[in-house]
Amino acid sequence: MKDEKQAKQALANLNGRNMYNTHTGGCNNLNLQISRNKTIEVKVNNSKSWDYTNPLLPIQMDSRVPAGPFEMHQNKNHIDHSLLPMHGMNMAAATSGHPNGFNNNSHYAPQSQHAPQHQRLHHLIPSIPGPNQSSYNQAAAAAAAAAAVAAQSVSGFSPASTVVQISNFPDQIANPDAIFTLFGVYGDILKVKIMYNRRDNALMQFKTYEQALNSVTKMDKVKLFDKVISVAFSKFPEIQLPMKNDGGLAKDYSTSPLHRFKKPGSKNFFNIYPPNVTLHLSNISQMTTQDQINELFSKYGKIINFKWISKENNKMALIELGCLEESVLALIALHNYQLNGSYLRVNFAKEYRNN
What we know:
Layout: H1 4-14, H2 117-120, H3 135-155, E1 163-167, H4 176-183, E2 189-194, E3 201-206, H5 209-219, E4 223-224, E5 227-228, E6 230-233, E7 250-252, E8 278-284, H6 290-297, E9 303-308, E10 315-321, H7 324-334, E11 338-339, E12 342-343, E13 345-348
Antiparallel strand pairs: 1-3, 1-6, 2-3, 2-7, 4-5, 8-10, 8-13, 9-10, 11-12
């Protein structure tokens, strides 16, 4: 890792995690420890070691790989594509709380979700010189390509990473509209699909990577109704909605008028907070009173505090409920609720206590 802080963060987030999904328990769980070694020395890039910071290291060829589009000068020598970093591998992901070390969405190139690895990497590797060129130049080109992919990976940015998987969510939000409204606080959601055989698992497709990242960083490990929600980037580049009726488990929101981030430069981009007991209310009618708001929100929980924060003709307020579950249910139910001719806008706010 880059430094000790990132190593400790990776240990905290990944130790005990399953290698193939976001759940703990079962087999194939990671067992991580801080090593006594201060550095790792890599002399050659091969199936046992790889230096992602040094593009000049030689690549050790593997003659077992069958001939293909990356054939070398001599037929018996081929680049071992399993050694190249997978597109989207995010070694910095652990430091931002990702439940695995990958931007899972970008494991697969858009042309196929199940293509062999050499095909998935094909669009990332520059043209390999023909038989007239030396195998040294070919290996150097492959090394440079691998370093470029690794550099992109370390940055943590993958333009295709817009699909997010949520799992272990409670029954109270187990419908597309509730997921759209709750996670729509962090970005404009285009599609939601709840898994048919696992109703506590769903996929969401956001408009941009940054919005998807907002949902991962703000909602992962949030505890609702005694269930800890897991939120991570998906391995799929996009969501395919079913052609036939699936019982209302999937929905297209690409033309929804309820997107919060439609206007470029909107203040909504700068007021994004994790789930908490305090809600920010805006677009309130001038005729609306505190008693009317309290009566409306008391249907979903106990009102602890209330405060007007009006600015000129823009009437806004903060309202604190008794617990996180109550504030989440109120947000889902009352965002875009028509009150005295205006449609309420409900968001999570900075926690507020009137004392």
